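Posting for a labmate who doesn't have an account.
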Amino acid sequence: MEELKIIECPRDAMQGIKEFIPTTTKISYINELLKVGFDTIDFGSFVSPKAIPQMKDTAEVLKHLNLSNTRSKLLAIVANERGAQDAAQFEEINYLGYPFSVSETFQQRNTNTSIEGSLGRLESIQEIAVKSNKKLVVYLSMGFGNPYGDPWNAETVLKWASRLNNEMGIEILSLSDTIGVSTAGSITSILNGITPELPNAEIGVHLHTTPDTYHKKVKAAYDAGCRRFDGAIRGFGGCPMAKDDLVGNMPTEKMVAYFTENNIRTNIDNGALERAVQQSNYVF
């Protein structure tokens, strides 16, 4: 069976918190996460501190991470070529993540450029990633709908996913439910439409959810063949560049519990996960 990949996203959990989290607190927390067995940790971002002030210390945090005994790889979010160049200097970073929106309005809000402008940026960022021996993960923001009235349907999502994979050679695409509007039905529909069309792409989901709908969403994605899942411990976080009210992330510990209960191997050390959940009390 294809390996299940769980990506923990403390960056997403922290970035919307207005009060600055001390750098030492971030370091301690992420070092605890590195012991759990996640495939990847989305640990920080190289973006303008004016846009996301909480992440201004990402480079400093990175210096103090203990990577000597972990299976987890590191991912950093970038929003333009400058951020990609900054992130690419660090050998410890394995993945660059870029938010590409299928909503014109949200692309402008999130990265201050149009969809076409975003494609141009992506070409440059992909070149930087390849030259620095890193892989690019592109998040298809508003992948399950948007609140702005922009055209959206499954065909739109497939069109952009196909262009990114087939024309630009981007191998990892993560469908992002930026504002929590996905349902089990829409998750099934979108994944069933994309996955068979892009056999060479790794398709993941970055779902936002309410506490009572997470299991339906996880089940729908897994049953549709998805094997890459983003989450954040205790469901903290959301997208500060979207609407004013943040929709919680997929709670990692509940997602792991769902997989465990259904005899789906996760490679997670449950004891270490429990300790990380306890450590999160000192962060959030």
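Reply:
Got it, the structure tokens are right above this. The first helix runs from residue 10 to 14.
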